[in-house]
Amino acid sequence: MATNKASANWLLESFRQRTIKKTYxxxxxxxxxxxxxxxxxxxxxxxxGIVSVCDTHHPFGKSAKTKFKKLADFDxxxxxxxxxxxxxxxxxxxQIRVHLQQEKLPIIGDKKYGRIPPKDLSTPLKSLAAEHHFxxxxxxxxxxxxxxxxxxxxxxxxQNFELFHQKLSQ
Length: 170
Hints:
This protein is an alpha+beta fold. It contains 4 helices and 7 strands; from the N terminus they run αβββββααββα. Helix 3 (123-131) runs antiparallel to helix 4 (159-169).
């Protein structure tokens, strides 16, 4: 996003100082509470590409905090799905995915931290869930420079995410 070195340094420092507000949405297996948060220590990515929750005294563990808000529920006799908003305060690798798994709300389609779709899931939904995980970086809110007003940059929801969401609502 930066157009020059000064802007790049400003944005990098904004990420370091955690002044950039990040908003994600995720479709998860399970029924979420209205508002919840997760604060835990996470390991760096291991040789298998996995991040784990660890004890606060772990030599390489780092604090990770995410606030969640339920946006919608899709409850049928066969399965429960929640649409949640995630606002991470820290920026650890796989943080949201690990936190939702820890809350027993794995992200649909997440092959590392999720679970296999229920057998009774319809073929079109199962096929969409197999494509990739349903975690979307919805927006960033930040000041692009020291004397500039805060802006929000929104990213459109990917088509297969929206399609899965629509099919659940039917």
